[in-house]
Design goal:
By secondary structure, this protein is mostly helical. The chain has helices at about 15-35, 35-55, 65-95, 100-105, 110-135, 145-170, 175-190, 200-210, 210-225, 230-250.
Length: about 260
């Protein structure tokens, strides 16, 4: 019998949901404290939205530029946080031995990926709130079903998160830094974010249309600009990328 005021040790791992919540909270604090990360995920999309909405640089078709640009910039925000920022941060965590120490904990590899994806979702909520406020101030008039928008954003986050973690868990940190930034720039130009996909040759359109950034920006634009129903084809493309990316990351991710 244990005496009053004393405690019996209970060695062993905490329940898995509690470990994931704790790791997700830590990852979120680290994301929000990183100044360079905030520049990439918040400042750059906001500046692009304001610049291209105010200055007639690119022909975005009929209607106001902001109605075309706002959905694409929301997709860019997801790309910058879930893919580029996460890949770079995780790559250097791996290089500095942070992930090696986490590997010695009871947290499984998929649990770490789940926690990082949850942290990305929290950051994206703040991003989307800011970008929506800026777009509305510029005269944006969104339409469509909020549930369809939420589904696109969640699937897009899962797809880019899996690809970012796959890159960070297989390449060296310096290679991840270069590759993530290069992919970000290429998808910014060729993913239908700012430049309409119709501006590209037909052969290129067929290939670019299968990219996750194109599916996300096109799906958001279909709902928010055109007021259409659920864009099932875009959701399907994002779902395939999400399953493939997260599955490959869980299979090939290396802690060190």
């Amino acid at each position: 019998m244990t005496a009053t005021g004393t405690f019996t040790p209970r060695p062993g791992a905490a329940p898995l949901p509690r470990m994931i919540r704790a790791q997700a909270a830590l990852e979120t604090r680290m994301l929000l404290r990183n100044g360079e990360q905030l520049l990439l995920t918040v400042i750059i999309p906001t500046l692009l939205l304001v610049l291209f909405s105010a200055v007639d640089i690119i022909d975005t078709g009929a209607g106001r530029s902001v109605d075309f640009l706002a959905p694409g910039i929301l997709a860019l925000a997801v790309l910058s946080t879930a893919f580029t920022g996460q890949a770079i941060a995780t790559g250097f965590e791996r290089r500095y031995g942070v992930l090696k120490r986490l590997a010695a904990s009871p947290l499984p590899r998929w649990g770490l990926m789940t926690a990082k994806t949850c942290a990305v979702l929290v950051t994206e909520v703040l991003q989307i709130a800011l970008l929506t406020a800026v777009a509305l101030a510029l005269g944006w008039s969104p339409h469509g079903n909020p549930a369809a928008v939420a589904g696109l954003l969640v699937l897009g986050t899962a797809a880019f998160s899996g690809l970012g973690l796959l890159m960070a868990g297989t390449l060296k940190a310096e290679a991840t830094l270069a590759a993530a930034n290069l992919v970000f720039l290429l998808l910014l130009v060729g993913g239908g974010v700012i430049v309409p996909l119709a501006k590209f040759p037909e052969a290129a359109q067929a290939v670019l249309g299968l990219l996750p950034i194109t599916a996300l920006s096109d799906g958001l634009r279909t709902v928010l600009q055109n007021g259409a129903g659920v864009p099932w084809s875009d959701l399907g493309i994002l779902a395939v990328w999400a399953v493939a990316g997260l599955g490959a990351a869980a299979r090939f991710f290396r802690w060190e």
